[in-house]
């Protein structure tokens, strides 16, 4: 049984098929819809701010920030595997959701206590110089007249990066006071150890809380419907709309408050959203009776022990985050061994686990199953590997694309107003809401004619789409303005294409796993599927690190070089992914043969 599902039994909250309720569904669906909406409000609102918070407020630099962000999102997908199992065996879904909501609320609110911005500095000739920021605005969107200078012997010098990596320090009269070769200037910041510790503790707390919350709210939705109830798919569709509604509201309001009243406002309202979720699942007035209760057969309550162990897991995740921040860059010329050794611990563990799980399960399937079962499992594993590549590129949204929106995008909307960089991420959920019914109708029409694309073909289309989205941005750069900013239309077009690609792979992935897996290890295979997404999140952080841009005090020193750096990475990986997608389309007929009629 998948970790996300609980036994489907009739409960007080499960009216008989056909009984009136909320839009023809069990009345409890409305409350679960709202609980999930507020949870997604908090998660996506915080996620939209995180990368900019790390680079602008804490001034961690692109490399450390991308690594930390990738590790955080990887754990967000990994911890639900444990949280779902704990709920199934010990706590029950409802108690797990309550506990997870409290932890996530605590984490978001803790992020609001970031303290004063880190003090940036630049070091050259063995001397550390203070960075002065005039008209500084501590928020997602920098002030239009913000300016940074190096204070060198009482003289304010403007920092300008050059295409070859060298840096010119320019005096007030426009003359070049110093020209430093590539690597001669080191930048960093003095960070308050207490506030940095609060940041890492908050991220660890959110990751643990998400593990308890995310899988089990879906389990409660599934438990609303008795086996065979035809309303189940429609119920999850309604529930999915709650996810997108929360995402849209969170990415808009959290960014708005962070810009106008400070980071604490954006993170604080995310925490309030989680407290609303907690209140809705705790004080439900009997509406959730019989849903997600403690599993039958429990002779003793292990709740306290589980809560204590969950809290003890926070320091372990804290250490992983510290390791992600301090992981060195690979030494040029070190080779593949040097690259592997430079990887952070979390990335090594995820890669190793994935590399062991895939062949290990296939060997077991070869020995324990029939030839047909083995071939179906082989097809599933091939698609799981392609899934890693898709999400590695797709999940640039919160990391490198967030920085691209801030640094190299003209975010003006028809000259009427300007979007903030975090708000540009809303193009994704809005596109999903618009495109989902269109693609659903298209697949239905093609199915009626017997021409609906197979699962491998949909995966191939998704890979081509996610690669093409980046090439659209590369094309848009040909029309960049004199400040090296690409028009907002091109970034929006990327998100629209990526959303269409997401709808070709995300909805069918879990279904594919359940259809192709040998029945007695379906739960394990579901775990491998989410392990693949967790690994992709970690690799997405590494990809974002490869697009790192040299900054001083959190701001780029050369917008032209910044644009060229992003586009070079996006073009390279966009073309590679399109090529892989084409190969998958070519090989789809063989995969279909291995799938033995599963579609």
Automatic annotation (TrEMBL):
It comes from Novosphingobium ovatum. It is found in: Cell membrane; Membrane. Gene3D superfamilies: MFS general substrate transporter like domains. Pfam families: PTR2. Its main location: membrane. It is a multi-pass membrane protein. Signal peptide: none annotated. The keyword DNA-binding does not apply. NCBIfam families: yjdL_sub1_fam. Keywords: Cell membrane, Membrane, Peptide transport, Protein transport, Transmembrane, Transmembrane helix, Transport. Belongs to the major facilitator superfamily. Proton-dependent oligopeptide transporter (POT/PTR) (TC 2.A.17) family. InterPro entries: Dipep/tripep_permease, MFS_trans_sf, MFS_Transporters, POT_fam, PTR2_symporter_CS. The chain crosses the membrane at residues 66-87, 99-116, 194-213, 234-258, 264-283, 304-321, 333-364, 376-394, 427-447, 459-480, 486-505, 526-547, 567-586. This is MFS transporter.
